[in-house]
Amino acid sequence: xxxxxxxxxxxxxxxLWGIVWxxxxxxxxxxxxxxxxxxPLAALLALKRFPGRDAVVNILHTFMGLPPVVLGLLLYLLxxxxxxxGVLGLLYTPTAMILAQTIxxxxxxxxxxxxxxxxxxxxxxxxxxxxxxxxxxQAFTVIREAxxxxxxxxxxxxxxxxxxxxxxxxxxxxxxxxxxVMTTSIALETDKGNFELGIVLGLILLALSLLVNLALRRLQxxxxxxxxxxxxxx
Amino acid sequence: MMxxxxxxxxxIGALLIVANVAAAETRLRCASxxxxxxxxxxxxxxxxxxxxxxxxxxxxxxxxGAAIEIGKRGxxxxxxxxxxEQELKAVEEGYFVNxxxxxxxxxxxIGPASDPAKISGMKSAPEAxxxxxxxxxxxxxxxxxxxxxxxxxxxxxxxxxxxxGQKWYLxxxxxxxxxxxxxxEKKAYTLTDRGTWLATKDKDxxxxxxxxEKDPVLFNQYGVMAVNPEKxxxxxxxxxxxxxxxxxxxxxxxxxxxxxxxRGNQLFIPNAK
Lengths: 234, 273
Fold this sequence. Notes:
The complex is a heterodimer.
Chain A: H1 2-8, H2 13-47, H3 53-63, H4 68-79, H5 94-118, H6 122-130, H7 135-145, H8 147-163, H9 166-172, H10 182-191, H11 195-233
Helix pairs in contact in A: 2-5, 2-8, 3-5, 4-5, 4-9, 5-8, 5-9, 6-7, 8-11, 10-11
Chain B: H1 2-22, E1 27-33, H2 34-38, H3 41-53, E2 56-62, H4 64-72, E3 78-81, H5 84-92, E4 96-112, H6 125-134, E5 139-141, H7 147-159, E6 169-171, H8 176-186, E7 189-193, H9 194-200, E8 208-212, E9 219-227, H10 237-248, H11 250-257, E10 269-270
Parallel strand pairs in B: 1-2, 1-3, 5-6, 5-7
Antiparallel strand pairs in B: 3-9, 4-7, 4-8, 4-9, 4-10
Helix pairs in contact in B: 6-7, 10-11
């Protein structure tokens, strides 16, 4: 334990705080954006029938396995000054990193939320119909019932974003004090041969992940009790 | 629920815009190499420059090949690397202007303490490479188009040997320090820069020694150049030139000479003309 603090003292606290904060901001904002886009998409795929629906689900599942380094390279070429979106000047900014996180987390959240909604007992929807719910109300009832699984999907999305290195390294550039996050710091310290420091940073990253997951778990448990209430109402 | 989502999206959008505006102070982007960043040179040098000019320099540290490419695409304002021939070629192609020598360090050939190919005492790097090849190496190469890799390939060429694909020739595809560690594990020879070697040989417990040094071929020149504003209108040419001019000024040169690693070794010798 004393060794832990010894290694920690090698890092300037202000710098470390900045890196931790940026990590949370980049993966948090990316996850929020991904979730905001993924949930309506998942609901649409689960509740509406339209041609090409299976194809979209297959694409989502495929993109769950998109190698981050490939996405990073694609985004680099898009956002580069010489690329089609170069005028935006987004390359090597936290915004570019958030964009990468959004694209990486979106298929995971959408695919897992989709299975959660699909797996809701059809009785729930039928009950809502009997109670005279409109189509919109039916949809919300089903989604609410699937909340537990949806939050699991969000957690998995956060895991992906938080652990991600390849894409944020390429589009962020690991610029000290600007785009350096936990994972890119760990890669840099490993390059420099500061293995112990790298491990310590990794432990801090895990601790952060634990905190975020505890918060999401609370949300998930609330979802459970809300579901219980709903069934008693139905 | 829908309105909430729209609100959240709008809020994130607004925050992103604010964050970008806040970041729009005088920032200069410098594409450079891992050796300058990892040695701690930039951490020492850039605050001095920022204090004098108010310009904050953001460093993107990649291999020399990637750094030049990033500059060519206009994704950096200034490029600070160590592959003089490649730099001059890119200047000739019109991608960069005002290239200057800034400083140098040198490469050394390192190998296992037992020196199985009997290199110690030799003076010529190409001859030493010839002997390593004849002894069946092994030799670990960066294999990543970095400045060090470029130098290594030039030496093989001078030795008249094409090492690619030979079973004693291992391409690590990694940074210098990792490559040294691979060489250490494989009891192999490799080419490294003296800065990385001095900074890491004890820390990494490398059981290796310098087997050849000081051949003029092993000279490692660092240069700086500004991205040509005629190619990319958005580059901060004025600030880039302030950085270039400062690096080659007596003041900047003195600052470079004053940089020492944790053990007190001077890692870079200023030599701007």
